Amino acid sequence: MRRARATSAAPPFFKSFTKADTKRSYLDGALYHNCPVLVAHHERRMIWPDIADTVPDILLSIGTGMNGLDNESQSTAHRTEILKGGETVTKRKRTFLPVQLAQIAADRFDRILSCNAIWSDFKTDILSQNSHVTRDSHRRHIRVNPDLRFKVPRLDAVNELDSLERATKRYLNLNRGKIKEIAHRLVASCFFFEKDVGSVRQVKEGFECTGKHIMDPAYRILTLWRFDGA
């Protein structure tokens, strides 16, 4: 519960969460990492340092929706909304969202909350460091962000959940081929090839070996053998 409150403390909708024993306050992580691809990239390099500089089988980023018709005005609206939230709190003399915090949030929204821009910057940076991955980068670094074709609802607009769901389903149906390929790649990434001992031998074209494909034990719970490719 405390983790949920800490990660959901999005101004001006929810106040910051303060942990009693440490007196540390936490805000919605989106203020700094609304598209956490850089965090994920850093973490996977730390977890698997031996392959830190290799290209992942797949890096999938899933967005929460955008308005492809009017992204710029949407950003401006969010900025205004946050500033107004800060002003409201100040008038009430509340302390959980001071003017300084509202200003910081508004200043960061133009870039930090532009998830597509963050994703584009990430891909540009990756390609500049690994020019050899340019050929199939679009197959390994994938972002799915449904174009709703209308203004993204406010965080507290629960009455718009149905229209949001319909718009997302429409986007997924229109991009069914892409979604299917992503599903196949995710399933394929759960398997690895294990060589038979002593089977590697040099041939005219390079090397050959024998072995078998094995599912990573961590994914067996997914019962992937039932996957029918639909």
Automatic annotation (TrEMBL):
GO terms for biological process: arachidonate metabolic process; lipid catabolic process. This is PNPLA domain-containing protein. PANTHER family: CALCIUM-INDEPENDENT PHOSPHOLIPASE A2-GAMMA. SUPFAM superfamilies: FabD/lysophospholipase-like. GO terms for cellular component: membrane. Keywords: Hydrolase, Lipid degradation, Lipid metabolism. The keyword Phosphoprotein does not apply. One of its GO terms (molecular function) is calcium-independent phospholipase A2 activity.
